[in-house]
Write a structure and sequence with these properties.
With 130 residues, this protein is α+β, with helices and mostly antiparallel strands. 22% of the residues lie in helices and 22% in strands.
Length: 130
């Protein structure tokens, strides 16, 4: 078990390159949150948790990136996440930037640090006509 607490850092400001907005956009809604997470799934960060993370990341407006060593993966892209090669016990950094970053970092870090990924949500059945 990791003795280091899960810390979230929030960065703001025009001088901070990690949180600077693109030209012509406002930095007010572009806070960046970072959290260190240890992969606790015994099989590592494999297809099922990557799919769960990508599905959840697509529900947010914010852009999320997972960093493992010198590799960066877009949290919305399963293949990008699998290329991180994060095994059991690996430490990754979740970086989320955007208007709903505070909520997104909580939801996404819970998926990344879970021992088992959440069960997929079944699609809503379409009512039959007639």
């Amino acid at each position: 078990m990791n003795a280091e607490p899960n810390l979230t850092a929030r960065t703001t400001g025009l001088g901070d390159t990690a949180s600077a907005a693109a030209p012509g956009t406002s930095t007010m809604a572009s806070d960046t949150y970072r959290r260190k997470i240890v992969i606790r799934n015994p099989q590592g960060f494999h297809m099922r948790p990557a799919a769960a993370l990508a599905e959840a990341a697509r529900r947010f407006q914010s852009q999320a990136t997972v960093i493992h060593g010198d590799r960066r993966g877009n949290a919305r892209d399963i293949l990008s996440l699998l290329m991180l090669l994060a095994d059991f016990g690996s430490e990754v950094i979740l970086e989320v930037r955007g208007p709903d970053a505070a909520e997104a970092v909580e939801v996404l870090s819970a998926i990344l640090g879970a021992e088992e990924p959440p069960a997929p949500v079944p699609p809503t059945p379409v009512p039959k006509k007639g």
